[in-house]
Amino acid sequence: MVKQRNDFDVPTYPEWESEKNVMLSAFFWGYVLTQIPAGQLAEYFGPKRFLSAAILTCSLFSVLIPVLGGQFGYGGVILCRIVQGLTQGFIYPSIHHLISAWVPLANRANIASFVYAGGPLGTVMVMPVAGYFSSSRLGWPMAFYALGAVGLAWTVIWLVFGLDSPHHHKTITKEELRYIQDGAINDKKPEKLPTPWREMATSLPCWAILICHFGSLWGFWTMLTEIPTYMDKILHFDIKSNSTLSALPYLVYWILNLIMSPIADYLIVNKITSVGVSRKIFNSIGVFVPALALVGLVFVGAEERAWTVFLLVVAVGFNTAILCGFHVNHIDVAPRHAGTLMGITNALGNCAAILAPLAVDLFKSIGGYQESDKALWNIVFITAAVLFASTGLFYNLFASGKVQPWNDPRNSEDASPQEKQPINEKK
């Protein structure tokens, strides 16, 4: 994908071809380890400091990737990716804790999905930039330097303006504070509660989130990590076209998020559906539509570029609906433990992100395939489609939109007035 340049001593992508999927999964070796501790630490000490340290460290190691890659080869890159994974493990649990503290139920799907859609939006911006640098005189290392600089700048901004909770805001009005607290965790001051580990482990709604998290991330990371290779080896796009077209599905992902998330909140606020029904509707869109699109790719020939790109855009783009589904459901069922619960499901769910790229290598080894063989990609896409659909079905059967009793055993009136509205389901 990237040609060797004489003005850089850093080994380029083709020299690491056999180690590519190991490097892609290395990030998650560290990522899954810190998820659960991150949720606990964010709840006990506040998420601001952990978000700051995570982005700062990750940005520094982004700058170091070309340096250590040139000095130690792909092992240096793997080391950097593991460290980045360890630090980024603090991000989602910390953000979930922030959302549970700051966002009332009436705005929960809209704001939470908007926040989490920032990741795919970053993909949209980074892929063309990386493609430009990789094919220019500046060389591919400049992409890592630029991204590291952006992360460092964000850290400064967050340290200046970020706050752990509304209670820490010096200029917030009493009316604003009351509105947020009544709709978020229904408490004047957040209190530290023991984590109900046993109750979480035996809760079907929690298992529904976890199972769906795993299946969705298998599909998402299969598409994110393998689409550029598919476009290169099967569709034969050059690097500039590849980077732009690889980003297109994530642009659609972000645009559809802006459309779907307000609808999800509208259905709940106007009592058209319950919280649980709304989560299941949008989660179904987010997993079943991508599953169908991936199956469609199996029947589209390599020469049919337009149809292939269209189906990839559909598969990735409609996956955005999960941000209004299971992805925000942690806050519905356990607002006081949302950070920890997100840490648990994100840790175990991201085992799929470790396994998905390695599964491609396994399929190649067992079947004797090359990356230029369409049959290999048919297996990859069918596997992702089956996991999307089966885990989505499990979620629809067992998920809930109700605050669970173990969320705060001290107070049976734990749920906010909006959350206490009857829901049209057993779960």
TrEMBL record:
Instruction: Name the principal localization, coarsely classed.
Output: membrane
Give a Gene Ontology cellular component term annotated to this protein: membrane
Stretches that traverse the bilayer: 50-68, 113-133, 139-161, 201-221, 250-269, 281-300, 306-328, 340-363, 375-398
* Gene Ontology BP, a term: monoatomic anion transport
Location of this chain's protein in the cell: Membrane
Residue stretches making up the Major facilitator superfamily (MFS) profile domain: 1-402
Pfam families per the record?
MFS_1
InterPro entries from the UniProt entry:
MFS (IPR011701), MFS_dom (IPR020846), MFS_Na/Anion_cotransporter (IPR050382), MFS_trans_sf (IPR036259)
| Transmembrane helix is among the record's keywords | yes
The GO terms this record gives for MF are: transmembrane transporter activity
Keyword terms of this UniProt record: Membrane, Transmembrane, Transmembrane helix
* Start and end residues of each stretch annotated as Disordered: 406-427
Its membrane topology is listed as: Multi-pass membrane protein
Q: Does the keyword Membrane apply?
A: yes
Q: Which SUPFAM superfamilies match?
A: MFS general substrate transporter
The organism's place on the tree of life at top rank: Eukaryota
UniProt cross-references to PANTHER family, sorted A to Z:
FI21844P1-RELATED, SOLUTE CARRIER FAMILY 17
| Annotated protein name in UniProt | Major facilitator superfamily (MFS) profile domain-containing protein
